[in-house]
Structures are given as structure tokens and as C-alpha cells.
Amino acid sequence: MKNYSFIKSSRIETRYKINPLFILILIANLITVLSQLPDLRGEMIKQIVLFGVWCIVFFISLIRIPVRLNTNILYIIALVMCFDIYCGILSIAKGTRYLHSSLIYPVNLSLFILVIGYFMAFYLDKNKIKLICAIYISGILFVMLNIYLKYFKGVVLNFNEGYVYTSKNSIGVMVLLAAIILAIYIKGNNGLFKIVKVILITLMLLFISIIQNRASLVAALAAVVFYVLFYIPDIRKRLILFLVLVTASIASLSNTKIVKYLDSIMSISRYGMNLDKLSTGRMQLNNRAIEIFFQHPFVGIGSAYTENFQLSSLAQYGVMGALPILVLSLIGLWEFLIKSKVKKDDFVKMLGIIFVTALVISTFEELAPFGPGTRFYMMWLLTGYYYGAKCNSCENS
Predict the structure, then answer these.
(1) pTM to 2 decimals?
(2) What residue numbers bound the domain in which 74 lies?
(3) Is 185 left (phi over 0), alpha (psi -120 to 50) or beta?
(4) 14 within a domain of the structure (yes/no)
(5) Beta carbons of 393 and 7 less than 8 angstroms apart
(6) Looking at residue 342, what is its pLDDT?
(7) pLDDT at 14
(8) Is the Cβ–Cβ distance between 318 and 296 less than 8 Å?
(9) Helices (DSSP H) in 272-345: which residue ranges?
(10) How many domains does the chain contain in total?
(11) Distance between CA atoms of 57 and 26, rounded to whole angstroms?
């Protein structure tokens, strides 16, 4: 069996004591995370600078690194090209609604970030990837603190009055991804480090709950379940963990304060069991998307809005256009949960669970797992790195 472990040397580092591309990636990574600061959200200059830095990383990588694209990356590029060509042809034939549809930009942006991650594997080793992840987590913690001090400090929370922080979805998802990376991939033998790690993960989950990012809370629960099912081979350990989870759930639901807190977050007491109101109108939007799909099953209608990625894809592009991006959205589940030969590797486990959370969130949001904005950029960056490292290992073996 071939060894798919991550590379330990760098093609560029042999010529430079300080890797300039690594420094650029750290800067791009930090700027991307800090773009979620409330005072910077929506600023056009911020978006231009952010995209510019990633473009510089891309073009320098393209020029300096003699990389050949392997089958996996070519397959992903082919899927996106099929999607783009399809939208282009239908825009000519049926009008520009297809080119103005919501998924064109985030799908191509995700591919752009994935290719950068692929290049990274040829000049960054595993330790530097961990440092990039650590910078990501640190930036998220800083943004969390900033939001807390700006919006929640000294405020008596009353979830029935609405959202305190309205831009909750983007930061909520990024906080959850940071928690998964910290829980699975960032390891340390020091006892104090483990205690701090547990505290930070707990704070992250509490932050997601106080901003009422319900999709991320559901995704977090799914992450735990899938981790137990797919990454714990010992049936006895799996059973014990399952019993612990059931016991903890029963104990939590037996506590009136916890039940009241969960009830306020999920807004059940506010809306009862009215699913449309509980989902802030998503049921009505989804029903409309289903109607559109049945009316136009093959090619869709172009631009259409609903808060569910799968239904949005089918309504906008029909079966023919939705198929490439639906396959692309599931590629991580196939690669990291089912196909991978290195399931014991923490990097693979981390990506598998991240893709599970992305899939869950995509049932609540239109653009997940591709967007909007920077929400899932780290997932695609690390996925690209995985494919690049796998290719590099094959070349060196």
C-alpha cells in the first residue's frame, strides 16, 4: 500500500531560509478571519485587499512551483467547468438569469481556494499547516471576543426579542470549524494544554449558542455522532461513547434551566411547533423551490432564492446543471469518510467531520458548502492541501 502521509520537505524551502509564500499565506489567512470583525464586514476595500492577497499567493505559486495536477484535482476542475459552461450556454439560450444565479461565484471561489491549497502541499509541511490552523483558531477567538464585548457584554439576553448579532451565520460556521480543527487536529501532551483546549472548545460552542446560530448547533451534534460512527473502530468504545452521549442528553433535558435555555435558543416557546416560523420562513421558500423544480426539472429557471443548497441548486439549474455541484459538495464525504485509506490520520478525520457539518448546514442555507464569502474557505484550502500532499507522496514513493 502506498504511503499517503504528508510531505516533510519543501521544494521552495531548500532555496529560502524564510519561505515567502508561507508568510503570504499566514497573512492571507489572518486577514480572511479578521474580515469577520463587525467593523470590517461589508467594506469594499476589505474585500478587494482580501481577494488581492489570495491572488498574489495563487500566481506566485503557479509561477515558482513545477506542479502537475493529479486526477482528483482535474476531476474537481472538470465538474466546475461543466457547471460554468452549462450556465453560459443557458444564459445565451434563455437569458442572463443563469449567470446571475447565486452559486456561480461561490463555487468558482471555492475552486480557486482549493487549488491554492493543492499548491501549498508542494512547499509546506505538516507542521506549517498546523501553524496555519493555529492562526485561524487564534483569529476566530479574537473575533469572538470582539463581538462579545461589542454586542453582549452587560446585556441581559432575551432571545425572544430577536437576534442580538444579526451577522451570526458566517461567524457561527467559522467558529464551529475552528472548534473541530482544535478538537481533532491540534494535539498536545501537556496536561495544561488539554485543559485549555477543552475550555476553548466549550467557549466556542457557548458563543454559537448565544448568537443563536442554530444550524451550526445542529451541525455540531451531527459532528459528534459521525465521529463516533466512522472514526472509532472499537465497537466497545463506540457503545460506551454512545451511552455517555445518551446519558448526558437525558441529564441535560432533565435540568429545567438547560431546557429553558435551549428552548429560548431554538425559539420553540416563541413560535410553538410552526416549522415555517421556527425556520424563519425556510419552509415556505423550500416549498416554492420544489414547485419550481417540478415545473422545470431539467434546466431550472436561473436565479431563484431558497435557504437550502440542494433545493436551490435544483430550482436554479435543474438536474443537468445541479448534478456537478451536488457531486462536488459530497466529494469530501466520499473521500474522507468512505474511501480514504488513512482514516486514522487526524487530518483526514478533521476534514471528514468538517464536510459532515457543511452538509448539515447546507440544508439550512443556500450557498453552503461553498459560501457565502469566507465561511467555508478553510475547508476548501485544507482539502486542496490533502489532494496535493497525496499527489506529492505518490511522486516521491
Answers:
(1) 0.89
(2) 20-396
(3) alpha
(4) no
(5) yes
(6) 61
(7) 40
(8) yes
(9) 275-278, 282-295, 309-333
(10) 1
(11) 10
